[in-house]
Design goal:
Elements lengths: L1 H36 L4 H6 L5 E5 L2 E9 L2 E6 L5 E2 L9 E2 L26 E5 L7 E6 L2 E6 L5 E3 L4 E3 L9 H5 L15 E5 L6 E6 L2 E6 L4 E4 L4 E4 L30
Antiparallel strand pairs: 1-2, 2-3, 4-5, 6-7, 7-8, 9-10, 11-12, 12-13, 14-15
Length: about 260
């Protein structure tokens, strides 16, 4: 009785083992099919020139293809930024002044907000006579900044620059000073110095007939006899306690906000 039961158990175990092996053998087919299914499709492989990386989209400068293990996905930069093909491992989108869009002229539509003409970017505030402020837009929120005194925002470089180097800035109107003409047309001096008519501490350098504002600093004054800054007590008419008129020079502080579009 005991031997019969043992034999029966052995037969049952053998049948179970055979059934399990057959089942495992049959499941190998679907596993292989699954692996093949996850290989890059023809369309995906056409999107990706390499298995991994980010690549430009033909004709559009703010779009790119991100390829991971051969799978390509088209993506858009945040509006106002452009795709930089040279940013291999860094954030792939940058400001327009840093990106070459030759052959990729198209862009997504602008997404202006109450503050900004685009969701991201740097933008000049004011007209040709008020060049000293700019706005940094981040996700449609604008943050206003002032250039250092005497400088103007240059939208071509996103930097504060000499006003005469900024194409859309009227330097004479902005600095409220014009360089006097040279009497002798046969004798040209490229650089001339003039004390500000309103403030002993400030002076103008005229470079090729265009003014640039300078500041001697507190307690000093521009000495026209030596064309340089000097202690205020050494400059006639600028002895302490000299107080500059208000307002002085260019508009150092702009009041109010100006829409950019």
């Amino acid at each position: 009785m005991i031997q019969y039961s043992a034999s029966k158990v052995a037969i049952v175990i053998t049948i179970y083992a055979i059934t399990t092996c057959i089942g495992q053998f049959q499941r190998r087919g679907p596993i292989q099919n699954h692996i093949e299914f996850n290989q890059p499709s023809r369309a995906s492989s056409n999107l990706c020139p390499e298995r991994n990386g980010r690549f430009p989209v033909a004709s559009q400068c703010d779009a790119y293809i991100e390829c991971i293990d051969g799978e390509g996905e088209e993506k858009l930069c945040p509006e106002g930024l452009l795709f930089n093909p040279d940013a291999r491992f860094n954030y792939p989108c940058g400001y327009p002044i840093d990106i070459n869009c030759d052959g990729r002229p198209n862009l997504q539509p602008p997404q202006p907000t109450d503050d900004c003409p685009h969701r991201y970017g740097y933008f000049k505030i004011g007209d040709r006579s008020n060049c000293g402020q700019f706005m940094n837009c981040a996700d449609g929120v604008g943050y206003t900044f002032d250039c250092p005194e005497g400088l103007a925002f240059n939208p071509q470089s996103y930097r504060c620059d000499w006003p005469d180097q900024v194409p859309d800035c009227d330097v004479e109107a902005y600095l409220e000073f014009s360089c006097p003409p040279i009497d002798n047309q046969f004798y040209s001096i490229e650089t001339r110095f003039f004390r500000s008519p309103n403030d002993c501490q400030r002076y103008f350098i005229c470079v090729e007939g265009r003014p640039r504002l300078q500041n001697c600093g507190e307690g000093n004054a521009f000495n026209e006899l030596i064309n340089t800054c000097d202690a205020a007590e050494n400059v006639t008419g600028c002895e302490p306690p000299f107080r500059p008129e208000e307002p002085t020079g260019p508009r150092a502080t702009q009041r109010g906000r100006t829409r950019l579009f």
